[in-house]
Amino acid sequence: MIDKKYKETVHTDINHYPYTTITHDENKVRIYTLKNGLKVFLAQNFDAPRIQTFIPVRTGSNNDPADNTGLAHYLEHMMFKGTSKIGTQNWEKEKQLLDQISTLYEEHKAEQDSEKKKEIYKKIDEISQKASQYAIANEYDKAISSLGATGTNAHTWFDETVYKNNIPNNELEKWLKIEKERFSEIVLRLFHTELESVYEEFNRAQDNDSRLVNYELMDALFPTHPNGQQTTLGRPEHLKNPSMKAIHKYFDEYYVPNNYAMVLVGDLDFEKTIQLIDQYFGALPYKELPPKTPIIEEPITKIIKRTVKSPTTPRIQLAWRTDSYGTREAMLADIVVNILSNRGEAGLLDLHINQTQKMLWAQAFSVGLKQYGYFSIVAVPKETQTLEEAKEMVLEEIELIKKGDFPDWMLSAIINDFKLQRMKGLETAEGLATTLYDCYIKGRTWEQELNEMDKYARFTKEDIINFAQTFFKDNYVIIDKEKGVNDKLVRVENPGITPVKINRDTQSEFLKEILADKTEDIQPEFIDYQKEITTDSLKDKKISFVRNKYNDIAQLHLIFPLGSDHDRDLGISTQLLQYLGTHDFSPEDLKKEFFKIGISNDFKTTNDQLLISLSGLEENIEKGISLLQHWMYDVKPDQEIYNQFVGTVLENRKAIKNDKNRIMTALTNYTKLGKFSRFTDIISQEELEHSQAEVFTDRMKKLFKYPYQIFFYGKDFENFKGYIGKYIESSSLQIPEPKKYPEPETGGHVYFINYDMVQMEMSKVGKGHWVDPSNFGKINVFNEYFGRGLSSIVFQEIRESKSLAYSAYVSYAANSELKHPDYITTYIGTQPDKLMIAVDTMSELMNELPEVPIQFENARNAALKQIASTRVTRNNIFFNTLRLKKLNIEHDFRKDIYRQIQGLQFEDIRQFYKTNIQSVHFNTAIIGKKENLDMEAAGKMGTFTEVSLKDIFGH
After folding, report:
1. Residue 791 pLDDT > 90
2. DSSP strand E in 50-142: where?
3. What's the pLDDT tens digit per position in 107-152?
């Protein structure tokens, strides 16, 4: 018998670079360590001629100085501002001014007198104007987007700061050149405008009650450890008093090659890649890291209770502190999480609370960190229940685990699901790269990660029971999230910033070199759908097949040309189905049966389609089909369950009316489509309460009598065709005519919702011309050039120059179906006192399209490189054809888009703008606190109407 245990082995490549691999690692990951301590993780994935890159730095908010919290996150922002070579026209002159600004910030931080602080800030603002004459905004992004990069971003968390790019593989060396320059030094240019953006991010977080609950939870779980004492965004008093010197010190201490890694997964050559990485990063010096004293928390020995108030629906969150990620305790906690809540919805909370509708919702989850972690349960009670009752219900489920009162098969089903999710996660370049960087951050080896499944599989039911009995005591934190006014809101005020110059038309010598260094172009590959998709028919059903070249996971999709436009109540019927059983299986037993065989089911209703999907190991797909059809043909109407379901639906409707994001979505929809739309045309409370369960179950029973087509994604099509015929009946029902919904003209209306929040959010929506696929190339470049992304005109002007908003964009969205209109949307989220200035700035930009030839050419080339290096794979091959069919297109339309962009001139974009955007009239949606709204300014945008929640939700 072959020993399948994963073991580390050492090799030397053809250029004498030592590296390690793990035996039986299907992804054949190579791990190099350069002489300066830089870890390099390389793996191949040939889905597309691209490489997913991550540069994870082993530092985050947990290493922030106690008097400068939020520093790691702010440094992450500043890493996009360039260096002494990137982003400057004259470094010598700029540096002198930046040094003055740095000194002034130290004086500002030390000064206690508020009036004197304001005077110092005025000087900072004044010198920042002078310094901005030499700065070139967003030049890092211009350089990186010129490569055809996508997904350019970064994030900061407890112990990590991770920098992300997905690049064409022919641009690897240029990417390394740019990143080597970026990681060599930090220049804090345009500092005070970016600081204002961080203020805005902080204020946005104040309007997110999930964050507010999490802050309280972590503070109580970790009373001395930075996990709970230092939030990523930092304390407001520290944000108001930053230190440029402290940021430089932090960068010099932690951004050293022995404290970060290079993770590259994609279409790459191992030997050439490591040589290039060594060429660019190998000379960066090794540096000892600052000593760190471990902080050990005292055990929690009592129940710690906190309260958070906000406008949203009440809920509770309980949490027990765990040991660090990868430890025995953390792994056992993870298994218990899945006994309570799992992907198959067959956990104890799933079945005993969600399935039976005892509460609105409950779920368990765990978070594993580099040091410590936690096990948590969130529960949302019904309106008639107290938070205390919700707590008792979830604790009862934990008691069942302590007693071993859960099925014996559950443990093996959970482990099998873990393996299935691991298989899915590692099959893409991004999934594998993410797992690799997470290992690096947590200080785990790839060998440990791969052996983890075997460790999980060795746990017994007795291990789980013993763990639960010792772990779950009155040693937890509970947060009561009550509905009310948050009296702890902290508003970081606008200090007053003069707009800075962003010098769009200039380029540094570094960027000129990058743009002049031509690489051999990747040739685009356009797909022949007829070749890639095998079709057949059985009875009157079309069957399509795409081969899975990657693993043993299969998918079956049943596609009905029947949606909510044809039957308004189709979606709610599929929702009710989830709570019902059959004459052979109770609702709970059905969930268990699906989970036992590792098959997930999903029902997705859109306006014109119902998609029923099964996914799991190919060998179990037939069992899944058999179970699915038994469930739908033999679904047992139960009026008592239906009545509970109605109560849950109505309570959920109330709950979403308290959620700011859901309200903004509804308000934007109302602004776009008016009172009567698909969004508001839903079954009424009266209809729900007076209906019989059979009305909805009968829909499910006769569903297979309608026409539909079948898509199978797997390996063995012949085997699939051999059994699928047993489950097909010929169509005997016709698809009903769809309801037509109006698409009214927009213009001249302002719709407002009053909501208690720190920020103000505004969205303008305008109806354009009917969709025209011949414009798709222009739309692609327009969005890149003008409206979205870090180097777009809108982002540079509103955020970089004037620091008016953390989030602002303009988006031209082409309709997905012929004979329907495109829509143009603008969005700004900012402090109330800056909203109207931001609106005026946006209006100025929209009135006349700014012409910046350099930026246009960069956007055009980036779009070409992205298309050339993108490949259509997996089930997207089939689903793309469904999307294209709505536009009456049968071939790979990217070919047409690519050709159009190749010949595109700025004048084409200008004409597109004049014809399709400039003449558009907009309606406006605003959400915020009414007392903070400038009513006179709002009135200038159109007829002002304060709408009700009933208006925008339709209930």
Report:
1. no
2. 50-57
3. 999 999 999 999 999 999 999 999 999 999 999 999 999 999 999 9
Exposure string for 541-572, b = 16+ CB within 10 A, e = fewer: bebbbbbbebeebbbbbbbbebbbbbbebbbb
CA-to-CA distance for 760 and 758, rounded, in angstroms? 7
Query: If residue 251 lies in a helix (H) or strand (E), which one and from where to where?
Result: helix 244-254
Local structure of residue 260 (DSSP, 8 states): B
pLDDT score recorded for residue 492 = 65
Coil, strand or helix at 641:
helix
CA distance 153 to 166: 10
* Other beta carbons less than 10 A from residue 607's beta carbon: 14
Estimate to the nearest angstrom the gap between the alpha carbon of 753 and the chain centroid: 26
- With CA atoms as reference, report the closest residue to 68 among 220, 182, 234, 223: 234
Buried b (16+ CB within 10 A) or exposed e, 180-211: bbbbeebbbbbbbbbbbbbbbbbbbbbbebee
The position carrying tokens 């990417």 is 175
Pairing of strands 373-380, 553-560: unpaired
Cα separation, 363 vs 351, whole angstroms: 11
Beta strands in 297-372 (DSSP E): 304-310, 315-322, 361-368
Rounded-to-integer distance, Cα 840 and Cα 748, Å: 16
Phi, psi of 697 (to 5 degrees): -70, -30
**Which of 71, 55, 73, 59 is closest to 163 using CA atoms?**
55
Q: Cα–chain-centroid distance for residue 233?
A: 18
- For 463, residues 6+ apart whose C-beta sits below 8 A from its C-beta are 332
Q: Residue 854 is which amino acid?
A: I
Q: Where are the beta strands (DSSP E) in 198-286?
A: 261-266
> Is this model's pTM higher than 0.90 or not?
yes
Nearest to 541 by CA among 528, 560, 554: 560
CA atoms of 769 and 766, how far apart (whole Å):
10
- Say which residue the tokens 């031509």 belong to: 518
Per the listing, tokens 């603002």 go with: 125
Contacts of 882 (CB under 8 A, 6+ apart): 559
C-alpha Rg value of the chain to the nearest Å: 29
Element holding 814 (H helix, E strand): none
